Amino acid sequence: MAWVNAIIQGILTGGLYALFACGLSLLFGVMKVVNLAHGDLAVVAGYVAIGIITVTHIPVLWSFVVVVPVMAVVGYVVQRTMIQGALDRSVLTTLMVTFGLSVVIENGLLQFFTANSRGLGTGLALVTDSFTIGSQIQIAYLLVVIFAVAVVVLLGLQYFLSASKYGRLIRAVADDKEAAQLSGADHRHVFGIAAAVAFGTVALGGIAYGMYSQLDPTTGTDTILLFAFAAVVIGGLGSLWGTLVGGIALGVAQQIGAQINISDEVLAGYLVFLVILVLRPQGLTARRAQS
Amino acid sequence: MTAPANGEESAAGTPLVELRDLVVHHGQLQALDSISLRVMPGEVYAIIGANGAGKSTLLRTIAGLHRPTSGTIRFDGKDVTGLRPERRARQGIVMVPEGRRLFGSLSVMENLQVGATYSRPGPWTIDRVFELFSWMHDRRGQPTSQLSGGEQQTVALGRALVANPRVLLLDELSLGLAPVVVQRIYGMLPQIMASGLTVLLVEQDVSQALRVASHIHCLLEGRTTLEGRPAEVTAERVEAAYFGLAGAGVGGQPGEGSES
């Protein structure tokens, strides 16, 4: 029963990891940009949520209504001002720029908010309560909600990419930037939209993590970015639903590791990551290489 | 002014596309040397020349994909030299690039939809393209990577048409296609022209170009070697201009040259 519990917990945690990963995967899929500041942006979103809740006293759960659009705008601006300029030089330059951004964000947060960790919605019934199945399986409401949010976000992203005008343009630009320009599409604007969407999803990830655990200025790189990376690689680079598959695989591996020995939790996750990287570098869900 | 223009045509009004002394470099290499040309509305203007003559570079520069080192590009009287390619496309300079360049992961329909996203008002719609190429409607859901070369070329043409171009730039339509297929695609040209657009095309197949063009312009190593109406130029002069033999001259009239 303890093993079943571990697997269930792992699957549900996978939803959280998918929230971290889908934006990273989207930016990589569209622009070939690996955004090393991705996790830090999640933390920023969490801090913004904490700030907004403190000032306006809106319910914790509704903070996303403000934070997601704010982060989307930040995404567009960061893309147009920093990432695009780097991208025009080379893809490698984008690594430097986003790495720099990551360092600046972390130190900025340390400077202004100290190294103390903060939680979101601590004391809220949704965050603390759980229900039990049988006698051994205890499931936190929060994890179920996060998992559901992740599925909704992925469905939304899929719909956006496959059926909307900008989704179509994003895929067109990802296929052939120059041909898209010849059709009148400004790839910089299209990339900006993609970044806005990606930052919006990571904002949800940051808020969710703030409720699930605690945020501090280094959470972005030492937890969120790494888990996002692992989920993306396990699931398959650039694949949307792959991030959920990868997130679940990572979550289950961690929980099973924790079941063996509580200190093995994180290591077990990375071992799966490493094994996939070696044996199936295209990830679990990826098709054969595309044109 | 300094453009070697056909006097009779320049009297007819503003050229739709006008290049003056266009110089383009690929890095250190000079690809185009002082090219001037005027494309009048309703023309089929063909740029011919051997491999590496600079034809595609010329077309890509007009579309905005290359920045000229010097010289100007005017479109309907306005200077568009500094304009980005997507802005030119939205104003009606639309190119069918060499090698089709369809969006491979998108379906036929989606390729056309992307083409129509920033379209100008005009007669061309996706439905009209489906009328012209009826097979496309039946296969609109297929990824373009599953189409034959000729079919892909037709979709690329359709993707350009739905933008309602004023001038359609066709870069090597015939490349890699069977002659029958090339004939069929060029056979569509009159119907396409009937909607009132102007065509500027690059073609390695000289006889094909001579058949459809109202004006030809021959390039050799980045320079203009011959220019005029197909009726005015003899096969010998075209051959000489194409291969760089002596005896070619620029323009239908004497005294016009850009060979300096």
Structural features, described:
With 291 residues, chain A is mainly α. Chain A has helices at 2-31, 38-56, 63-89, 91-113, 125-128, 141-163, 165-175, 177-182, 187-212, 219-235, 240-260, 265-279, and strands at 130-133, 137-140. Chain A has a domain at 19-220. In chain A, β1 and β2 form a beta hairpin. In chain A, α6 (141-163) packs antiparallel against α9 (187-212). The longest helix of chain A is centred in the N-terminal third of the chain and has 30 residues, at 2-31. The radius of gyration of chain A is 19 Å and the shape is globular. Chain A starts with a helix and ends in a 12-residue tail after the last helix. Chain B has 260 residues and is an alpha/beta fold. In chain B, strands 6-7-8-3-9-10 form a 6-stranded mixed sheet, with helices on both faces. A 4-stranded antiparallel sheet of chain B has the order 2-1-4-5, with helices on one face. In chain B, β9 (215-220) and β10 (223-228) form a beta hairpin. The two termini of chain B are 17 Å apart. Classes of the chains: A mainly alpha (291), B alpha/beta (260). The A-B interface holds A 165, 168-169, 171-172, 174-176, 178-187, 290-291 and B 63-65, 84-86, 89-90, 94-95, 97, 101-106, 110-111, 113-115, 117-119, 145, 159-160, 163.
